[in-house]
Design brief:
Blueprint (H helix, E strand, L loop, with lengths): L13 H41 E5 L14 E5 L2 H4 L7 E5 L11 H12 L9 E8 L4 E5 L2 E4 L2 E2 L14 E5 L4 E5 L9 H4 L2 E2 L3 E10 L5 E2 L1
Antiparallel strand pairs: 1-2, 2-11, 3-4, 3-11, 4-9, 5-6, 5-8, 6-7, 9-10, 11-12
Helix pairs in contact: 1-3
Length: 221
């Protein structure tokens, strides 16, 4: 039988199979190389959309929220929560850091990669956002005295604080319309509304829902 000829049953010989397979491999590799940029672009677009409109993982760079959040923890922040309801007392939220921000003048591809890394909490800690707990709501008067926080003259119960932790005296501060008074749980090591005043509701990025990392500390907030 001549190599490459059909077998008596009409089926191609093994030499035909191997040559066809050899031709298909470069074709598959070529398609993959052509489609790879498109797949990367789609992945970047999905990450950007999710980060912008749905949720984002944030890296905790400081100890201002100990014991709830430790340095190097990762938390998932919902950007939809406050489209359904207003911030509530006790919520842990992320907001734009007070003061002027330095614009990112890097190229579009670099910004896209940063967006992907930021969306999964792998980028370097950002100084553009803070994470604190809501203590005071609009039109309330917040005051710190005798180691406690008082809202409209009533002592605020704060079970999330470390045992024996006390709050230094401050205020009274009247929270304005469209503002929130925020504080870190680690009262001795937190730059918060006691320093920079109430924050604008419009600067809130989203609500922290859960601690994702490390696995041994995974929990809802």
């Amino acid at each position: 039988m001549v190599a490459g000829a059909a077998s008596p049953g009409g089926h191609p010989t093994s030499s035909d199979d191997s040559s066809a397979t050899g031709r298909e491999r470069p074709a598959r590799k070529g398609r993959l190389l052509r489609e790879l940029p498109l797949m990367v672009a789609v992945a970047l677009l999905v990450a950007f959309v999710v980060k912008t409109f749905v949720a984002q993982v944030f890296y905790i760079p400081s100890g201002s929220m100990i014991p709830q959040l430790a340095i190097n923890d990762r938390v998932v922040v919902s950007k939809l929560a406050y489209r359904l309801h207003e911030p509530r007392r006790g919520d842990v939220l992320v907001f734009d850091a007070p003061g002027e921000h330095v614009p990112d003048d890097s190229s579009a591809p670099v910004r896209a990669v940063k967006a992907v890394l930021g969306a999964v909490g792998l980028s370097a800690p950002s100084t553009q956002e803070y994470i604190k707990r809501v203590v005071g709501l609009p039109h309330e008067t917040i005051e710190g005295r005798d180691g406690k926080v008082f809202v409209d003259g009533r002592e605020l119960v704060e079970p999330y604080l470390p045992p024996g932790d006390v709050t230094n005296d401050f205020g009274p501060v009247v929270v304005g319309d469209g503002e929130l008074f925020v504080m870190g749980d680690n009262r001795d090591n937190s730059a918060d509304s006691r320093v920079f005043g109430p924050i604008r509701r419009s600067t809130v990025v989203g609500r922290a829902l859960a601690r994702l990392w490390p696995p041994s500390r995974t929990a809802f907030l």
